[in-house]
TrEMBL record:
It comes from Labeo rohita (Indian major carp). Residues 192-218, 259-285 are annotated as: Disordered. It comes from the Eukaryota. InterPro entries: RNaseH-like_sf, ZnF_BED_domain_contain. This is Zinc finger BED domain-containing 1-like protein.
Amino acid sequence: MGVCKKVVSAFSFSWKKKRELAATQEELKLPKHKLITESPTRWGSRHAMIARVLEQEKAIAKVLSADKKTRHLAPSWQDIEVLESVCKALNPLANFTDALSGEKYVSVSYLKPVLHLFNEEVLKPVADDSELTKTIKASVISYLNEKYDNAATDDLLSIASLVDPRFKKRYIKDDKLEAVKSRALAQMLDECQSTSQATPEFPSTALGGGKSDGADATPAKLQKKTLGSFFKSYTKSAATSGLTEQQAIETELNSYLQAPDADSETNPPGMVEDQCSDIPQSEPPGKTLLVYSCHQLTLRARF
């Protein structure tokens, strides 16, 4: 890292070096990019600095070697090998960091799938990796696994994955699946009881801009029912008739888990309702709580 910082500093504080670098880039037909300086407040700037130095390696070496005062700063082949090993290990992490930094979509439910992907594919050592690259990958994997190994954190992430229609139980360990389902069922029961005990509040104003005068209120337009709508409501009520509240909620949860997984590119809050549209019970227990849990877990993780 020290070599990179010294190289970048040599060009940052000299307009002549910058001019020579631009001319050499054109001569060697390299991209006309400026060197990047590492910043403590800029996430991923170290990786960006290393990648840019490797990209402009030939131009940097030619410019620095032409001046006897800066000749010693030119990276050696050993330095280049180290930088290439570090960059190779950090490349996939930079892409995942950008994807997980989004604020307009749910990302907490991605943590367990991403950890699984890191362990099984992204950071798994391959044959052409150098020893340094393998060491860096092993260190990153060890740190992440220890960071999220806490029981409370693992429970939270498991529930987050369970209520996400993209993943559900796919990344939950088999020995913990029943415990996670039991916790989800308990939360659904609790939410159902809280909803049933709450007294709904209706606005006292009439339709038509809040005026109470019946003459100014616009009557709602009656919509004609289709023949199929009668059978749809009958099917929903018949499916849960004779079941206790707990049995009905458990049926909804099992139906949700058995439904096909949603596409991984879609966003959970809007699609949970689509995934649960075929759940028999039309009242809150399962459908409302599954949507609510996604938002609750997201807020809890962000704040």
